[in-house]
Amino acid sequence: MDGGEAAIRYPWAEPPEEGAVTRIAEGVFWIRLPLPMALNHVNVYALDDGDGWTVVDTGFNSRRSRAIWQALLDGPLAGKPVRRVVVTHHHPDHVGLAGWFQSAHGAELVTTRTAWLFSRMLTLDDQDRPTAETLEFWRGAGMAPDILAQRAQERPFNFADVVHPMPLGFTRVAEGGTIRMAGRSWDIHIGNGHAPEHATFWSRDCDLVLSGDQILPSISSNIGVYATEPEADPLAEWLEACERLSQFARDSHIVLGGHKLPFAGLPARMRQLIGNHHGALDRLMDHLERPATAADCFAPLFKRKIGPGEYGLALVEAVAHLNHLRKSGRIVRHRRDDGAWMWHKPGDG
Ligand SMILES: [Zn+2]
Questions:
Q1: Ligand 1 centroid to 42 CA: how many Å?
Q2: How many CB atoms sit inside 10 A of residue 212's CB?
Q3: How confident is the prediction along the chain (349 residues), in pLDDT tens digits per residue?
Q4: Separation of 49 CA from ligand 1 center, angstroms?
Q5: Ligand 1 mean position to 304 CA, how many Å?
Q6: Ligand 1 center from residue 88 Cα (angstroms)
């Protein structure tokens, strides 16, 4: 509509090798850590504060990640201490080693209050089997009976399996604040929707933006609803955050996100992030000519086949889009006999 993808540029064609750093600008370095998933990496950043480093996001807590970090600290990061770890949001690929940097390196943890509360709560929430509430939520979403039965018998994903224990205490950042890193002042703006109270950092002194997963190139950040807050409307929060953050976007910005490559062309990308979801909502409305469960909505939402490895993320994203349509008055729902919600246009079914 407005040039879209053509306006987005990638100044670095290749990511840094494992155990190496890529210099982005004076005192700002890009690092990659592996993830054992379809999305097989996370980007983290080291910012030179003179007498030590600020690390932005951390990777999973695993023996392999810790060994890579140790090699980085001994090698390219020149043996200087990590004095601060800044965490953009509470997801495990970002917060996984924050507690390790705190307890093993004496670093200060800087993050939002919600990110800290969620992270610490989830590290303490050990589950051997899915909770009754989670099973009820999956049933409501129309999860296929065979998948539901199998999952009920399995140990679910536990946050603590990939996130290091977190000691008490952190330093809070919030909307409108600033922070000094790598000899620059950074404005703090808070996003929402992918994770609640997601911090982003916008340099006042150069064109760099540290965006976490709030702003990513080429892939869409997962917007999900979970059993913890089954009536949530994170898509409304996502769209609000995108509109608000768009005001700060300049074409010259170099955006350093949590996944994929650094990019320029932020105003165009912000329009895509908003437009993609409006497109998905419109396709969903067409699909709901007939009543459907959340699990019946993958085809119009994702326009591709969803494999077993993506099923969970696809399901929570489908519920997010349906909750949003319902909260905005475009659809209603009723319970099927098996407990699944059937979503449909008012007056049907
Ligand atoms: Zn991430």
A1: 6
A2: 28
A3: 444 445 999 999 999 999 999 999 999 999 999 999 889 999 999 999 999 999 999 999 999 999 999 999 999 998 899 999 999 999 999 999 999 999 999 999 999 999 999 999 999 999 999 999 999 999 999 999 999 999 999 999 999 999 999 999 999 999 999 999 999 999 999 999 999 999 999 999 999 999 999 999 999 899 999 999 999 999 999 999 999 999 999 999 999 999 999 999 999 999 999 999 999 999 999 999 999 999 999 999 999 889 888 899 999 999 999 999 999 999 999 999 999 999 999 975 5
A4: 25
A5: 22
A6: 9
Q: What tokens does 302 get? A: 């994702």
Residue 304: strand, helix, or coil: coil
* Cα 178 → chain centroid: 22
CA distance 331 to 348: 10
- The token duo for 109 is 């943890």
Strand 208-212 relative to strand 41-48: parallel, antiparallel, unpaired? unpaired
Q: Are 323 and 231 in contact (CB under 8 A)?
A: yes
Name the burial class of residue 335, with classes exposed (0-12), middle (13-18) and buried (19+) by CB atoms within 10 angstroms of its CB.
exposed
Kindly give the distance from the C-alpha atom of residue 313 to the centroid of ligand 1, in angstroms, as a whole number. Answer: 13
Torsion of Cα atoms, 229 then 234 then 237 then 242, to 10°: 150
pTM: 0.95
